[in-house]
């Protein structure tokens, strides 16, 4: 049981100062648990009356937000829990509250980026919020901060958002995957910036090409030979330094059976030299050599990759000169997937955005 020390209050209507009490009432207020037990405060609240205009109003209590039945400490506790990838329902259950009450606390969270970072990363993720399958995420990979979550990936939306900033000239680098539309848009918005393709995304092109060939080759083989392809996907993609003796024997059998797969594997291994380049100049020589060899391989899957690399060669080579990647954004996307899974989807974009921005502060 508690009661606040009496003090002067300003009338919310006319501003007059008063300490005159009109009446009292007892309010039950939830505080943080103590040793696992619920803590309920019996707060005896005063209702003051203004001697000038007659307005009646409750006394102001620093630790109790207006229209709330729990203390600021409970509020802060829920804020901390909302930083985890947990559902609103679970958080509400832990705090003996209703999910709508926790949702109201989420609605108090807001984040506004005042200026654009030196390094800007852009990507998309499948959020399925408010009728839009994909949302767009903008981040600062250098300082590990989310800049903004946009409700869709349309260029008009991105252009409108980025166009509002007065410090666009501060953006020196843009990191992205190999989505052609984003490159054109970023060149339009930041023509002075250096565009860098994330290493993971251009290496993945080779992984996909190799896998398509492996699947087709495995389909055409008889049962007699197909047994050699068991676990072949992992063996073909595994670092050669980590192959066991059994792995090497199986790899030799696979490459002996399939000529297209042998060529594809050799191209994949040769690209490891490109990845290991020490600087841009060395990477440029090795990449040019790889592109020529891929185009002469007779493998449609790798010929397609070679032309993609030609088209993106400058941005690929920039990744050997500057240390920025989309690794931070990929980490964000993984946490977003977890949040969606534990929440069984988040259809309201505004709440979805606030949760993501709040979680990424952690």
TrEMBL record:
Q: Where is the Transposase IS204/IS1001/IS1096/IS1165 DDE domain positioned along the sequence?
A: 120-356
- Chain ranges of the Transposase IS204/IS1001/IS1096/IS1165 helix-turn-helix domain: 59-108
Q: Which domain of life is it from?
A: Bacteria
The residue ranges of the Transposase IS204/IS1001/IS1096/IS1165 zinc-finger domain are: 8-53
Alphabetical list of InterPro entries matching this protein? Transpos_ISL3, Transposase_DDE, Transposase_HTH, Transposase_Znf
Q: Name one Pfam family in it.
A: DDE_Tnp_ISL3
Q: Which PANTHER family match?
A: TRANSPOSASE FOR INSERTION SEQUENCE ELEMENT IS1557 (PTHR33498:SF1)
> What is the recorded name of this protein?
ISL3 family transposase
